[in-house]
Amino acid sequence: MDLLIGAFAGPGTIFAIDRTTGQSSTVFSNGPFFDNCGVAYDPDTQKVWLVSWSREVISYDPLNNWARTDYPHSDDAHDALAGAAVSGFTIFPDNFQVFRGVLEGGGLTELTRSDDLYMVIRNGVTALRTESPITLIVEGHAPNLVNSLSVQVENHVSITGLTQRIDAFNFTAGSYTNVDTRSATTTDSVATAALTGVGDYIDANRLVRMRVRVRADGPVFTNTWRSFVDQTIWTGA
Fold this sequence. Notes:
Strands 8, 10, 11, 13, 16 and 18 form a six-stranded antiparallel sheet that branches. The protein has no helices and 18 strands. The protein starts with a strand and ends with a strand. It is an all-beta fold and 237 residues long. 0% of the residues lie in helices and 50% in strands.
């Protein structure tokens, strides 16, 4: 969802405005007091930050029930505050499908953060050798204005000898485009791939879709192996 976040000083209310519809909703009200403040969103920490006239520095975590954290006051008061958005955006997944393989643990929440809490998928049965025994499809929704877009996957596997492929769905062509292929690692590693022709990868409803595939391209010495997916997101500007 493409949102503006507002803060009502005094009562401690946080509200959201959907930029596509203009509809507002209260995230929470009657929270702890904060003074007149500027508001900004940081996609790297995935938090909303407030800096108030009375030197308060506060963060709210929308992925953790809007948990509040207070930080040490800055040295000076801040007159004429204005909110400033951090450059760029992050698209978090809002839907997933384990197309091939067996989901053993985790869900949508595990795909949103790089926090060593994993979606665990065991390899499944395939009819053809060219099919990937682990195939994860993830969807999200892009903001209205997108100049650049990349897919990003953090993952590791349980054995060596596996290959990881990341595909982005091209809605113009109606098919997936492979954007990254690499040897899968047994410790967490991050794969990022920039998309060329961004508009082709966003449909009319702002839907974006990626696919993560893992398979053995050579002999492996066990019939059972797993993928541990830590994060699947899109980043852009």
